[in-house]
């Protein structure tokens, strides 16, 4: 079985690699950096490195708007190809969002090469040189705490509850993968279920936030007197409603399998 030092080394490597990719402007660099930082937050929280966990989570939040504009631009390209917007409308939105992306790119580069990330890497390096005998026990305890949320059914819950559940799924999955790195592999089936649920909830979240940005663009168009653009955006928003609802229902369906397995696994563990 590997020890906590090995786990921290994995985290150092992932953050540094993603940081360099984001600095270069690689398409998935920002996404990979935020994922690597989220994993640091989960691992550090479980192992008692609270300041490291807080710093990692703060960095993730600081880059949220930049990641969302990337996602929104990708979705805009898709809906444009599907004919939901006229070429003029799609071009107008793309031009406005490109300016946001340009400013965001500069912030991403500064963050990826900034003191906060470098300080975090230094702290992770120190943790990697330490060992702790209770790493598995502590991570399992944190995993059980995350499972408390996963055991709750999502039926009837509002969007805020789904968002919190999405975060809990990520945390639970990352902790299970930490345990696998340390040689504990009994969570393998749950990891796959939680990955599928995380992806479904991610698609739902991306699309609903995309709709929110479209609604903001529609309101701005109305204020400027761009009636045609506002009408096209309203039509697109109406078309997206059933898609968002469908993805939401699919995620809830997948969550049932996860919520059923959690209490069963706990009973087996006893």
Q: What features would you describe in this structure?
A:
The structure is a single chain. It is built from 10 helices and no strands. It folds into 2 domains: 1-66 and 101-132, Up-down Bundle (Four Helix Bundle (Hemerythrin (Met), subunit A)); 134-270. Helices cover 85% and strands 0% of the residues. It is an all-alpha fold and 270 residues long. Helix 1 (4-24) packs antiparallel against helix 2 (29-46), helix 2 crosses helix 8 and helix 4 packs across helix 9.
List keywords for this structure.
270 residues, disordered C terminus, mainly alpha
How are the SSEs placed, and which strands pair?
Elements: H1 4-24, H2 29-46, H3 50-62, H4 64-81, H5 87-112, H6 115-128, H7 135-150, H8 159-181, H9 188-224, H10 227-269
Helix pairs in contact: 1-2, 1-5, 1-6, 2-3, 2-8, 3-6, 4-5, 4-9, 7-8, 8-9, 9-10
Summarize the structure.
The protein is 85% helix and 0% strand.
Which shape, going by the Cα principal axes? flat
What is the string of helix and strand elements? HHHHHHHHHH
- Whole-Å distance between the termini? 23 Å
User: Given the helix and strand composition, which structural class is it?
Assistant: mainly alpha
In total, the number of strands is 0
Average of per-residue pLDDT values: 90
Largest sheet: none
Instruction: Output the number of helix runs.
Output: 10
Specify the helix fraction band: over 70%
Question: What's the domain count?
Answer: 2
List unreliable stretches of 5+ residues.
Answer: 266-270
Radius of gyration: 21 Å
Percentage of residues in DSSP E strands: under 5%
């Amino acid at each position: 079985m590997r020890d906590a030092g090995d786990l921290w080394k994995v985290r150092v490597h992932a953050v540094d690699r993603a940081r360099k990719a984001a600095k270069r402007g690689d398409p998935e660099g920002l996404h990979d950096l935020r994922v690597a930082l989220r994993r640091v937050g989960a691992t550090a929280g479980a192992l008692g490195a609270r300041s490291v966990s807080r710093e990692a989570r703060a960095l993730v939040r600081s880059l949220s708007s930049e990641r969302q504009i990337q996602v929104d631009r990708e979705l805009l390209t898709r809906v444009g190809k599907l004919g939901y917007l006229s070429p003029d409308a799609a071009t107008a939105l793309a031009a406005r969002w490109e300016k946001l992306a340009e400013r965001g790119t500069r912030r991403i580069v500064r963050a990826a090469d900034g003191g906060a990330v470098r300080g975090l890497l230094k702290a992770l390096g120190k943790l990697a040189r330490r060992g702790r005998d209770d790493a598995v026990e502590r991570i399992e305890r944190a995993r059980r705490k995350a499972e408390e949320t996963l055991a709750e059914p999502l039926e009837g819950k509002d969007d805020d509850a789904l968002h919190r559940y999405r975060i809990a799924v990520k945390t639970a999955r990352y902790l299970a993968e930490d345990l696998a790195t340390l040689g504990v592999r009994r969570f393998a089936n749950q990891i796959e279920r939680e990955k599928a649920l995380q992806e479904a909830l991610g698609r739902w979240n991306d699309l609903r936030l995309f709709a929110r940005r479209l609604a903001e663009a529609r309101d701005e168009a109305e204020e400027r007197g761009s009636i045609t653009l506002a009408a096209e955006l309203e039509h697109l928003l109406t078309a997206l409603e059933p898609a968002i609802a469908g993805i939401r229902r699919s995620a809830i369906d997948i969550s049932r399998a996860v919520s059923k397995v959690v209490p069963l696994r706990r009973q087996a563990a006893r």
